[in-house]
Every structure is written in C-alpha cells, then in structure tokens.
Amino acid sequence: MNRKLKLWELDRVDEETFKAQEKFPIYVILNDIRSLSNIGSFFRTGDALNVEKIYLCGITATPPHREIHKTALGATDTVEWEYRASIDDLVQELKNQGIRVCSIEQAEKTTFLQEVANLPNEPYALVFGNEVNGVDQSVIDASDYIIEIPQFGTKHSFNVSVCAGIVLWEFAKRSI
Description:
single chain, alpha/beta, Alpha/beta knot, seven-stranded parallel β-sheet, 6 helices, 20% strand
C-alpha cells in the first residue's frame, strides 16, 4: 500500500522561511494576461517552483483580488511581484541587468523546450503572452530566445497557465 500524505505531512516551509530562502534565477513576466484565474495560477506555480519574481504588465490585473486569490491560494503573499505598465521598458531593464529574456511563443526560429537544458546557466525572464494574441511582437524582437513547447494534437496552443507549469518546471529543474 502506498498511503497518500496529508497536507501537514508534506514538510513545506512556512511563509517567512520561503520569503527568506534563495530563489531560483527565474523571473516571470505576464504580458497582458486577462484571466484572473490564470494570474492566480501563475502565483501558485511560482510559489511551488521557487521563482524570484513575477512581473505583471499591461492589462494584467494585480492582487489583491478575490478571483486571483481563488487560484493563488495565498501565493500572492509569498511570491514577490511588481506591476509595470510598459513591458518593453521592463524587458530592456532586465536585459541590462544580464537577465536573458525568453518569450514563450511559436515563431519562425525557436528553441524547443526540451533543449533548454543546453542553455547557459544564467538568470532567465520568461514572458508569457495574452490568451488570444500571445506575446507582443516587440517583446519577441527583443528576446534572447523564443521557447516553443512541441505539440502533437490539433490545437495551436496550451492554456497559458498550463504552459507556465510545463515551462517553469523545465527551468526550475536546472536549479535543483
């Protein structure tokens, strides 16, 4: 028998310890995410995968908000975040700090997700785009890499929060 663990048996750190611990060198940038549930999911995934910070850009809503909290389950209190009106200015600022910018998108020239293990061991900012329009072309133009998740079905894309879980895990496991 393989008994399922109770939540109190998972031995997770408390909020204070989490905030103080060293984070993985991963920054998340949300480019005009319109769904409050998706935003909350980014926070929860960011907490689980120990990201450095989440940037909320453009029309992306910010905490506190009841609908964000429903999926974030308190992660808006643990994951550092900041709102920026201009994603283009943010991308340039991060690049100037030596952070590599990766747009998660489908484009003419991409790096497939399974190849990120071969990228240099540096801090990365991962840009996730609007649910309908994706990542802004200006951000793609400024990106160091365009990361694409291979797909084998009839649909053209993943839900953006599902995409985040897949991509963030690939980057987080580089730091484990």
